[in-house]
Design goal:
This protein is of the alpha/beta class and 471 residues long. The protein contains 12 helices and 19 strands. It has a 10-stranded mixed beta sheet with strand order 9-8-7-6-10-3-11-12-4-13, with helices on both faces. The chain starts with 6 loop residues before the first strand and ends with a strand. A hairpin with a 4-residue loop joins strand 17 and strand 18. It folds into 3 domains: 52 residues, no CATH class; 316 residues, Alkaline Phosphatase, subunit A (3-Layer(aba) Sandwich), CATH 3.40.720.10; 73 residues, Arylsulfatase, C-terminal domain. Helix content is 26%, strand content 18%. Helix 6 packs parallel to helix 8.
Amino acid sequence: MCRSQKRFVFELRTADGMCLLLFFSFLPIDSRMPFRTLLYAIVLFLVLSFFPIADALAVFENTKTNVLILFADDLGSGDLGMHGGVCHTPNIDRLASEGVELTRYYGYPFCSPSRAALLTGQMPRRFGIAYALGAREPGLPAGLPTLSRTLQSSGYQTWLVGKWHLGTASPPLQSGFNHFYGFEGPEIDYFAHTNKRGEVDWQRNGQTVNETGYSTFLIANEAIRLIDERDTRSPFYLQVAFNAPHFPLSAPESYLDKYKNLSKASALRAAVIDAFDEAVGRILTSIKTKGLSENTLVIFISDNGADQTGRNIPFRGGKGSVYEGGIRLPCFMRLPGKIQPGTRSHQATSAQDLYPTIASAVGVSLEANQKMDGRDRWAALLGANAPQREPFVIAGSDMAMFDGDWKLIQSADGRLTLFNLDKDPHEQNNVWYQNVEVGERLKKSLVEMTAGFPNLSQRRGPAPRPARPGR
């Protein structure tokens, strides 16, 4: 038999101006093979001629929806420039205008329960989280289904950058995150990265990191690095949990100089929020530069209301309270092509709703029979004629029960107060005695929905007395 070796060289010019040299080296073949081999080469030539290389490679790029959560710490609704705040927040304000503003988004009175509600879709009181956890408390139980674990099992790259504050029992890498950079406790010094005991609480995947820099900017740097170095074949879930503007407040001098006209305390908080806004803008710019804006769901939230240094205007109360100022928080969502820009949703949404809502938005199914207090609010956010959120509870030591415009508060000492938020959004008038039937109905629902909650630690204060109407 005759044996030969033939080499074909094709030069193909794509629409991008790239040149591709294809070398087909044929092993020794018998007389029946050359025609078939030539046919293969012709077909390949035609395919590559009609489909540029960039387009051919694009089939390997991720097409699923990415998720970016930008988590503020102790940011009140009135702190933002768009809501009358004294500091400059152009990037956050722009993000709000590019998507939907949730005017009735409810978090929790403290850091830890808000973060637990996001990750579990449950009321954190179910597993004893009602306050800001201490640095060495167990916190989030091991083995719980989490948003990060659900997305991870669906092929997502899952990253947490910044604040954890969910205890020691199930740290980030055991709760569904592939990567963790930041701090585990309640607060850190913005420059020294130390906790209140003076210990460095700054790590990357369990290894302490000693580095210089302002924490707000370091968190943004890490988020941008992860976006830049991501596996482009897989979607990502990136939770960026800033420590700003949580105490102990500190800011670079250049930001403080912008607010010399304010009092020292006001200037310091404004500078911290200004730097935070800049960091948010850098991350959003990275998303845009990488061409990811169109398929990235961006969610901006705060964990609880501002403390006494911030602004929760026009609402009553602040951090630590279940009045509107402590739990009704800034929340914006953006997903071009899905969420109509410049819109507002007035339907009530809770922190525990984020888990099922995000899963719905990205097309990921939850586990069968998974315990979930949250509800999927995706259709409502898209502007569909969705029903009002069914009654839900924000439960700390004090508990707030929401049913449409009605809000029932049961204090830890047992007092009951009833408000109609449509008529009285500032919660100035307790209308229990004018609406006893409504109050009793909500009270019964509250008892049913919180049945089985574990008792809170006695170190947190006295046990609640039997519930009774307040004045």
